[in-house]
Amino acid sequence: MKMIVGLGNPGKKYERTRHNVGFMVVDELSFRYQMPWKKSKFNGMTSSIVVNGEKMLLVKPLTFMNLSGECVRPLMDYYDISVDDVMIIYDDLDLPTGKIRLRQKGSAGGHNGMKSLIQHLKTQDFNRIRVGVDRPANGDIINYVLGDFPKSEQADIIDAIKKSADAVEAWSNKGFAEVMNQFN
Length: 184
Description:
By secondary structure, the protein is of the alpha/beta class.
């Protein structure tokens, strides 16, 4: 089984914000396969899908972004999922809005959700999809990532969400390196 984790913050207030693109991607996958979300005992929401015969556990941590690892690590342990079978999807200020980049390892890059995951997984070597949200012109990062996408960016972000979901589906029957070559 593979685990696909979308990072974000729970609650209506954050639902459409830049910081929640990870949630948006796993929501897209849940919608495609018509599988409902269930509350897990590990402070997260989960949904199970089967893609090309591969079972995938979709996860939305409810710990808020900065504590994401507190949900992900116990779920990995409970389902006996290795770090090689985990993919994290999150927002990235260093990519233009709508651009996606797949990587197999890397630092947190200042992203607090990734810092928590690296701390709890005890490695930086895990699969990830970075979804570009661009940087704010005024430098106010907190209000920017907790703000909604303007209408002018909505088509780009919808396209990035769909491409990210397509990349997850491709990972069901291809190696991650091959998926990186296809989608980067």
